[in-house]
Amino acid sequence: MRSSAPIGRQAMAFVLAGGRGSRLLELTDRRAKPAVYFGGKSRIVDFALSNALNSGIRRISVATQYKAHSLIGHLNRGWNFFRQGANESFDILPASQRVSENQWYMGTADAVFQNIDIIADRAPKYMVILAGDHIYKMDYELMLQQHVDSGAAATIGCLAVPREEASGFGVMHVDESGRIISFIEKPDAPPPMPGDPEKSLASMGIYVFETSFLFDQLDRDAADPSSTRDFGRDIIPFIVKHGKAMAHHFSQSCVRSSNETQAYWRDVGTVDAYWEANIDLTDIVPDLDLFDQEWPIWTDSAITPPAKFVHDEDGRRGMALSSLVSGGCIISGAKVKRSLLFTGVRANSYADVENAVIMPYVDIGRSARLKNVVIDRGVTIPEGLVVGDDPVADAERFRRTEKGICLITQSMIDRLGA
């Protein structure tokens, strides 16, 4: 049960949203991973931001770096409703060489360090440091409460992951009280969890500190010439060794509606994982409930007309089955099945679309047949194009993953006619 004075009102959320996410291949050629579209209306970064807002945190900063134009535009349109006079703030912090004329953000810790003066102006008592590139629903107020109650110098959000996947995370050992006794960033051989040799306890990239303590640690780290300026490699291991760092299990603060049977967290960092997480939303009862009004995912509410379905004759019937279809879409005599269509997609007559994740303003030509695809924003699919039938031909023309998902961009389409 929450106290009468939520700790979140004393906190600032600092979202690290500068990474490219190179495993998403061409999807991040023009945008950072946090700006990649997800779920029909949202961007990936909206989940961390919505968690902060829904948790009662009204001071938020977002650090950007790699190809930030798309992300900054989205943040300006969708997250401009904070009221500074009510002790609220929303700051977008591009890498701007604040410390040195030749120094961009050198690591996750440096992104915070370079903005200490801005954070100090907002005067939060606590800092919640967040990765901006994961899909989950979490009440940070509960993590803040644990941090205060335990007297920890740092509290790290964590979850159990299969050991074979843990090498991509910071991995920790904890004692019976939940205190972290060792922390290894992205180990080649991840250590197992006590009592469960098949899993490791992985960091979610979520950290809570008292602001004054964090500033001291960042100053100390900036003076260390051997540091990589990273939370997982430098800041957290130092605190584990010299102070008190506590683990906060995601299961303690994950947000679930009555339709969600288990804690949901996804790193959609590969094309296969991205496709699967989006397509899963078309299930009758998906693992992630985007219709939960008690924990909404806030985003840019683009002004669009309703989705439209036209033509009703044999072989030319506008229809969508087991699909999510966003505003501004026109299904004109096409069939869409188990697919997710973002804003403004048009599927023309006789087209057949299945198992597709289609980003905004794609135009699908007549008689095209598309299966198991991810289509980037603004692509024009030629009439009669067939994808998903011939693996060899698909791999020659498009980016085909090991699991058979084809990523299609406009430059790939343009090469077809070259």
From TrEMBL:
The keyword DNA-binding does not apply. This is Glucose-1-phosphate adenylyltransferase. Its EC number is 2.7.7.27. Pathway: Glycan biosynthesis; glycogen biosynthesis. It comes from Methylocapsa polymorpha. Keywords: ATP-binding, Carbohydrate metabolism, Glycogen biosynthesis, Glycogen metabolism, Nucleotide-binding, Nucleotidyltransferase, Transferase. Belongs to the bacterial/plant glucose-1-phosphate adenylyltransferase family. It catalyses: alpha-D-glucose 1-phosphate + ATP + H(+) = ADP-alpha-D-glucose + diphosphate. Homotetramer. Alpha-D-glucose 1-phosphate binds at Y105, G170, E185, K186, S203.
